[in-house]
Design goal:
- This protein is of the alpha+beta class and about 190 residues long.
- About 40% of the residues lie in helices and about 20% in strands.
- The strands form 2 sheets. The chain has a 3-stranded antiparallel beta sheet with strand order 1-2-3. A 3-stranded antiparallel beta sheet has the order 4-6-5, covered by helices on one side.
- Helix 2 (about 45-60) crosses helix 6.
Length: about 190
């Protein structure tokens, strides 16, 4: 008999599920308000969508299903010193998640495609700026145990709705339904 807190048994712990929630609306263009059996829930819309997007992007990455959106006009990017070696070291993972980049000189890249989940947020020169922000966040450590998980979490973050973004009641309901289907809806 092992201790209940050992890593071997904690992996099999069933996910905590969200109770049935009825969306009431949105507060301060940041929180989804919902009524549940125990009272009112305030759900950070960015954090909820980031969880949904992280699991979606990770699942596609794990299944080696690359979804990228080619840019109509490729974007050139000047990198900080040392960033090119990070790109070279992780070029396969970057490509696998949907980034299409080519070296263009010693510290420059051309971004030809972006992960499909970023397509609406990163077009034209914006794609280069998002790519640089992703690299910056990864160089700072980001979240997650591995570089790959940090990259996926960063992409999920940049793909998610933001605080201050107005959502319709239907969009709030849809986000809650998506959150309910995730493996870790409470995280």
């Amino acid at each position: 008999q092992g201790d209940l807190t050992t890593p071997e048994t904690s992996v099999n712990t069933p996910k905590k599920t969200l109770p049935v929630l009825r969306v009431i609306g949105q507060a301060h263009e940041t929180y989804i308000l919902a009524e549940g059996p125990d009272g009112i829930y305030m759900i950070d819309q960015h954090a909820a969508h980031e969880r949904v997007m992280f699991e979606r992007v990770k699942e596609r990455f794990d299944q080696n299903v690359s979804e990228s959106q080619p840019l109509l006009e490729p974007a050139s990017v000047d990198l900080a010193p040392g960033a090119m070696s990070t790109v070279q070291e992780h070029i396969d993972e970057l490509g696998r998640v949907g980034w299409g980049v080519e070296e263009f000189g010693s510290n420059s890249l051309i971004v030809r495609s972006v992960p499909a989940s970023l397509a609406t947020r990163a077009s034209g020169d914006g794609a280069g700026q998002v790519f640089v922000r992703v690299l910056d966040e990864l160089s700072e450590g980001g979240t997650g145990d591995t570089w790959r998980d940090r990259m996926l979490a960063t992409i999920a973050c940049h793909s998610s709705v933001r605080a201050g973004q107005i959502l319709s009641t239907e969009e709030c309901k849809d986000l809650i339904r998506q959150l309910e289907k995730t493996e870790r809806p409470n995280t």
